[in-house]
Amino acid sequence: MAAIAGNEPHPPLFYLLAKLWQLLAGEREVAFRLLPLAFSVLAVPLGSRVAHQLAGPASGLLTALLLAVHPWQVWHAQDARMYSQAATLGLATILAALRLDEQPTNGRRLLGFTVVALLAALSHYTVLPLLALVSGVWLLRHRLSRRWLASQAVLWGTSGGWLLVNAPLLGRYSGNGDQPPFLEAVRRAAVAFASGRSGAPEWATLAGVVGLLLGLLGAIVLVRRAGLPALLVVGVVPLTVILEWAASLRGPLFNESYLLIAGGPAVVMVASGIARLGRWLGPPVLAGCLAVALLALSNYWFDPAYAKAADWRSEARAVAQGARPTDLVILNYPDPTFEFYYRGAAPVRLLPANVPFRREALSRELAELTARYDRVWLVPVRAANWDSDGFVERWLDVHTRLVATASWTQVRLVLYETARGVLARARPLAATFDHVLLHAAALEPTSCPAPCSLTLHLIWSARQPVATSYKVFVHALDEQGSVVAQSDAVPADWQRPTTSWQPDELVLDAHTLVLPHPGRYQVIAGLYQEQHGRLQTTTGQDAVAVGEVSVR
Q1: What is the CA radius of gyration of the chain?
Q2: Domain holding 444: CATH number?
Q3: Model-level pTM?
Q4: How confident is the model over 81-99, as pLDDT tens digits?
Q5: Domain of 493?
């Protein structure tokens, strides 16, 4: 529980159930996804029963049909998160409250309502407005009783207690949504209620407007038929949207997934509106709603642009197949999905491990890790609430050698070789310039057709802090000793001046030369200062031969 409260800004029930289910069913992906799927399927009869009780059998049947094919329900049915659980338990809470409203003195019904509502509150904080709405309707319709007050004390005491436990993390939580204007938030909510998150822009907004009109008609039907109890359905939809938008005023918190608690009630309203249209107008409108659902589902199932989640499975498989025990995998965002799929030999580290983070400390940690491993696999995620400016990726770009990049749906993978990795395959040199040591050089390729583009990697270190900013020169000499190609720059493409080197830190420095004509060339390297010329090695040389290349 302490681990959940310290690392996850949501209530704990889903994680506890997921852990129990994992112990029973194993760690297979299919088994793990059965839990949210079960909740999503359960929403169909629960929503149908709520609609039946408030508006009659026709509304109940239409609600079941629309919920069964609703793109939003299907989307979250495959999401190993708490959203479908919270939405389903929210519907169960409404149904339990309606049953209790019929017999307000029935102790068993009160106990059932308390248990279901408590489970819902411990699933997601967006359930709390629904509980407040239930309390308000009860106060307007019934007298207070000791049993009811005890039920409320259990619900709000437990929810409030967890909020206090979770408060430090919630205070730091910066959100994973955005901050839309109010009308845009209403539009997006209407689109989500109509076609989920896979409706195409060409028709999703229109479907949302039609759904909104049907929902308003359904709200009138529900209030006329059921009276005040209908507010448990009619009221929770606008209340959830307004509160979610209001919360986004303090940070990027508006996220359609947080509206799912109102998804079931919204479908009940739409179904009640369709039922009110009658036998002539109702069927074609229903057919249109089903067509919208099928179009959105086809996007979700067959178009990668509408994929719900990143293709972590393919990325984890690629790393597992290519990683060596001397490699390191770095995640710069605390998403556990990669590690769920990953079965490779290389260890995995989260950097930064916490936020906010100190850049100097993270730089030192990255330097220590790259000094211990030959290669680094980076899974870069740009998130506003973690490594927002890509500091880890930018650090690796400067301090290591980019080997390869790859991408899948919504995810990227970058492979770097460290100075240690280059050193393991490089030509040893051990040439000393003042307090700077040139350890080794790796020249690639050593034979190629003209024009030949070659890359030289030099491995440097400083025995003590260097007060002077030296430049590196790399020259390609023909058989007569003439310079035919050269590179002169501050180390690491002007990113690592010698004054920034830490004692004994391995510095990887890359240079590219282009040799236009066939022949044999010698490549030399060294250090110089613009005002005073080249530095000499301890053996009296002003350059070191680092390799030869044959151009055909």
Answers
A1: 32
A2: 2.60.40.2550
A3: 0.74
A4: 889 999 999 999 999 999 9
A5: 426-551
